[in-house]
Amino acid sequence: MAPKEKYTVILPTYNERRNLPIIIWLLNRTFTENNLDYEIIIVDDASPDGTLAIAQQLQKLYGPRRILLRPRAGKLGLGTAYVHGLRSASGTFVIIMDADFSHHPKFIPSMIDIQRRTNCDIVTGTRYAGDGGVYGWDLKRKMVSRGANLVADTVLRPGVSDLTGSFRLYRREVLEKVMGVTESKGYTFQMELMTRAKGMGYKVEECPISFVDRVYGESKLGGEEIVEYLKGVLSLWVKV
After folding, report:
1. Which residue among 93, 153, 198, 214 has its CA within the 20 to 30 Å range from the CA of 239?
2. Pairing state of beta strands 37-44 and 204-208?
3. The overall pTM is greater than 0.90
4. Alpha helices in 87-204 (DSSP H)
């Protein structure tokens, strides 16, 4: 009999004190109700709002087997947060997602079902296919996101509808290999992961999701990140 699958969720956090208890509760409920083994790795980048203290309380509540804390000394970038968390992952599959409710855990069972049915290596959540969608954004933010995906699709031709999305399920060994050749550290990290995974021949399937703007806190996307993204697209076009 094959060993039971285990799912590792990596949650990078920065100023998520108000969001973290609820997202952890939702994740625990989702995995428990679906009889799935899991662990959650919280990578906090020295949040000044006390996110780590809340994470420590949650670890006491749910237990160190379920909640692993891997804090860092400062804000070092989203990409390196995933790399840092992956070092401690023991799951056969790794789920990467945001901690601010932009990605609802209710879609995880659908992502797992797609992986099991297709035996794919990656399931990526998409806002732009099927019944996926975006809620809570103004027209400008929607146009920026659509434009970013259009630019990437035109230049890189990755074969996925939502290259900038960051709600994904990976086979752990696949994520380890792709991260090993990924150079980006910030907001282009997700785009490079998917582009390189497709270039390496890994099988990718999509799962429509509803993306909801963060409940508490402020978006960390600004003009510098948009410029970084455009530079990243051109860099990948040259390298991949």
Report:
1. 93
2. unpaired
3. no
4. 108-118, 139-156, 172-181, 189-199
- β-sheet bridge partners, residue 124: 168, 206
Amino acid at 147: G
Low-confidence stretches of the chain (pLDDT beneath 70) = 1-3, 129-130, 132-159, 186-187, 213-240
Amino acid at 227: V
Tell me 107's DSSP state.
G
- pLDDT score, position 238: 47
- Rounded CA-CA distance 30/159 in Å is 30
Structure tokens belonging to residue 102: 């932009």
Both tokens of 154, joined, read 């035109």
Percent of the chain with pLDDT over 70: 74
Beta strand segments in the chain, E: 6-13, 37-44, 67-69, 93-96, 122-126, 133-135, 168-171, 204-208, 210-212
CB 125 within 8 A of CB 111: yes
